[in-house]
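User: For documentation purposes, I need each entry recorded in a consistent format: the amino acid sequence on its own, followed directly by the corresponding structure tokens. There are two entries in this batch. Please keep commentary to a minimum and don't merge the entries.

Assistant: Recorded as requested. Entry 1:
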Amino acid sequence: EVSGICCGLHTYEVSCVIYEVIELNDFPFDMQDLHMKFSLEGATKESNDLYLHQLDIRADMVAKLAEWVMHTPRCERPKSSETVLCLVISRLFWFYVHNVVVVSSCLAALSLLAFACPLTDVSGRLEVVGALLLTVVANKFSTNADLPNVPYATCVDNFFSLTFLVRASSPPITTNCFLLAAHADMLLLHTPL
């Protein structure tokens, strides 16, 4: 007892398994933030302090997070009777960047080969673009096994849609380039000197 105040220390050990719904809107660049609130309840809630002194995370649980990196946990104390533990994990995204984004970007760059065909070879241009469109569709189906199956579009899904849209717009662009070049040639031929 100090100055009429009685002090006591109680130590509790809590062991728990926490299940969290993972939001994948930004997949594969997603970061999951888990907040756990520990608080004192009841009549003595205002006259007590709650401190979280030690946090032990089992190694076998961390090993299950093979494609994730766990950041240093932090504690926040909004009130003296509350402690909020914040666990943040972020995905190791280089596998997806290397196997999905780089491959799809290379296929997008190959669509420029259509402009290497002579202007009069419209069928050759359309063959290149058509083959690349089929390759993109096959690539999307083959990488679906590595992507999460969720009912909403992720960042990778939006990237695939955008690159497919760019490639799908290639046939009209390449055909119109031929028509514009042919029209320019006709204008040059009929221009009096």
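Entry 2:
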Amino acid sequence: LPTTISLRSASMRARERAEKMSWKDRCALYYFGIELLQKSAMIFMTSRAMDETRLSGWGLVFCHWSIAAFVYACRPWRVVALAFGKLRVNDCLNKSEFVAAIMQGCIPCLALIFPVQRDENGVVKENLTYDAMTAVLTMLVSALLLLRLFVFVAERFATKRRKLRIVHDPIGCMQNVHDELLNLAKRGAVVK
């Protein structure tokens, strides 16, 4: 056989590259599989088998906070920096996912720390603690929804670019590439 022909397949070469990756990069690569396992644990913690046990609530808190720890350690989402006026947030998607998981873990944690009190008929007693916890939990859930909505909408607008339609309009496409490279050069950006 000639020496120029490689005896290794593409999958063998890919496995060799994957072996050189750090553990964080490997975990980030399989993020959706790991998150699926964590979400399955959450479903189990809220099932009838775990209902009415202390493990159910604290297990749910553990699942959410383990997702937060995983996102903090591995940074599975692509790095996107969003700027809001003079405020610049680097790695916005990973940070928002981390904060969201912490907040999601706080909700059952607070519910377990301040349980609902019931009278002898099983009716919930409304008192100052009940009202305060309802307000805090409502604010947490609202903040969580607004955080995710704001970040994902801002990310969509931040990455909105002119489309490169090289098949339909090759001259216009090359002009767009030329304009983008010229803008990068004017800003002094380093292109890798």
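Summary note for entry 2:
The mean pLDDT is 80.
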